[in-house]
Specification:
Largest sheet: 3 strands, antiparallel
Strand order of the largest sheet: 1-2-3
Radius of gyration: 26 Å
Order of helices and strands: EEEHHHHHHEE
Structural class: alpha+beta
Helix content: 25-40%
Distance between the termini: 74 Å
Shape: elongated
Number of domains: 2
Bound molecules: zinc ion
Length: 163
Amino acid sequence: MYVVTPHGWAAMLGDWRGPTPTLPSGDVLMDCVPVVQEAERLLTDASDVLLTPEPRECLLCYVSRMVDAFGCDCSLRFATRYRDLRAPRATSLERRLGQVGGFCDCEIFLNGYGMLPRYWLPGAVANNGDATDASSPDPLPQCLGVRRGSTQPCGLWHRSRRC
Ligand SMILES: [Zn+2]
Ligand SMILES: [Zn+2]
């Protein structure tokens, strides 16, 4: 049995001791602090990136991805965030979404739009062919892309028949 200290090691039983192996000295441990700060900075950057629509990502893929990750707060916070970032001139967005029953982010998918069945992933479709969660296969397929400034859904989405 040995004791290892920052200054060396010694055997608990017997006289063996020596300068190596050594634990990192206090100086080395201090070096970890900037690394931790760097990680925190990266995390902050990452959440900004996470909350930003990808290039050409459509409104619905973005909102669906955000609601999956952060939930719905009963407002159109992600839809309006997309609009503000990508299509600031689409001032009628809330009204248009309201017309399809989308008065909050999750209602866009509950009432307004669903993913076309051919894009459902195998895990999202039960044996009898019914989608277990048609609106949000996990993970979502890659957005098919829309032109910049558009608030139209990409080809993954169609208007739900329920409306
Ligand atoms: Zn909601
Ligand atoms: Zn899309």
